Amino acid sequence: MFESLQSRLEEAIKRLRGQARITEDNISDALVEVRRALLDADVHLDVVRRFIEDVKAKAVGTEVKGKVLPEQLIVKIIHDELVSIMGTSKSDLVQAPQPPTIIMVVGLQGSGKTTFAAKLAAHLRKKGQQPLLVAADVYRPAAIEQLKVLAASISVPVFSMEGADPVNIARESLQYARKFARTHIIVDTAGRLAIDEAMMQEVATIRQVISPHEVLFVCDAMTGQDAVTTARTFDERVSLTGVVLSKLDGDARGGAALSLRYVVGKPIKFVSTGEKLDALEVFHPDRIASRILGMGDIVSFVERAQQEFDEAKAAALEEKIRKREFNFEDFLDQLRMVRRMGSIRELLGMLPGMDKALRNIELDDRAFTKIEAMILSMTPQERRNPRIINGSRRLRIARGSGTTIQDVNRLLKQFDEMQKLMRAVTTGKVKLRNLPAMIGTSQKR
Predict the structure, then answer these.
(1) Which residues contact 203 (CB under 8 A, 6 or more apart)?
(2) CB 3.0–4.6 Å: which of 31, 144, 183, 316 could bond 99 by disulfide?
(3) Higher model confidence: residue 185 or residue 140?
(4) Please, which pLDDT band fits residue 118 given cuts at 50, 70 and 90?
(5) pTM for the full predicted model
(6) Does the domain spanning 101-295 belong to CATH 3.10.25.10?
(7) Residue 151 pLDDT class (50, 70, 90 cuts)
(8) Would you kindly state where each structural domain of the chain is located, as residue ranges?
(9) Which ranges of 127-196 does DSSP label H, i.e. alpha helix?
(10) CATH for 3-86?
(11) Residues 352-373, buried b or exposed e (16+ Cβ, 10 A)?
(12) How far is 353 from 349, CA to CA, in rounded Å?
């Protein structure tokens, strides 16, 4: 997330390394690089100007106290300014005094509206709500079918009307939701490849008819300043209440995230970070600022882990590791838990220092699928006691999982190394802060 911007900001801050104090001259040199980094990330010019002015005003003349270094102080100032520009605090969804809460999703075609609508339904369902998805995109081929497939995977109903226009579909969905006691209505409206009058008139009419409590604009995070222009147009016609940044796991330069709140004046409410329907996060400006500056996001990491955490299982697992009884069945359980939390690069990137350590290391989540296939091709006895896996058993496992004997050999070797590492961590022989270097060394083999 924001790797390019993060790297450029690191280079800019390095200019203050070794300085005894912050002066007009050395802060100006550093901020020239910060300005270039922001412009390269496609941040809106007005935002860049305000950002540079505010950082300089707060930095120049600030006394560096105690053991705090100038570069550490400027990181703190830049972090606080990033938070200020992006909204200072998270913005929760508005809830209707009496259900259902009506949420209208708008945006251009290809921005990820339909996927976000399903993700939001999954997010609400996890919180004990009963959402209803409304298929109001009757123009894009297979849009309704896509929504139904996504909804079926999370057990959420979809309201649609064959042959009806989007305005009537949205209107009738209100009666349906009240009849079946749905707590939230999520209306997936149609998008276009570009803004046109017919599109804007249609979403304006739908808004007038259903009076939504939230109008969320889904923005492709890779579009930079174009997203700001589009969001302004939608806001003028339908009065947006919030923004959603989609595809933030891709090659997002950061321009949209740093520009939208300041320029359009609407809070960013969610970020979408993957294809899976649970890959949706509430937008926390302070956490995103920390990620941009390579400081990690340990709070989000812990929150995700807590969703999958079972205290009794964790205690039993720790005991097995101490007794050297950790086996492939335990490993498979942990592997599946991690996969439910998100991609491995994203999760490791939330840990302070890990994002930088992993920058040039290839981490492919598809490797998890191969590992899972090999473990499932083992017999229960082999999973519990890997030491019995001889040459003929390795050949059978390879054939059963569609892999090679070399793949099986590599898995067995890495599993043995992992067991040793886990025992070392639990006994205190290896500190967690040393893991990034160890991972890098392991990947180079």
Answers:
(1) 104, 106, 189, 234, 237, 238
(2) 183
(3) 185
(4) very high
(5) 0.67
(6) no
(7) very high
(8) 3-86, 101-295, 300-443
(9) 143-153, 166-179
(10) 1.20.120.140
(11) eebbbbbeeeeeeeeeeeebbe
(12) 8
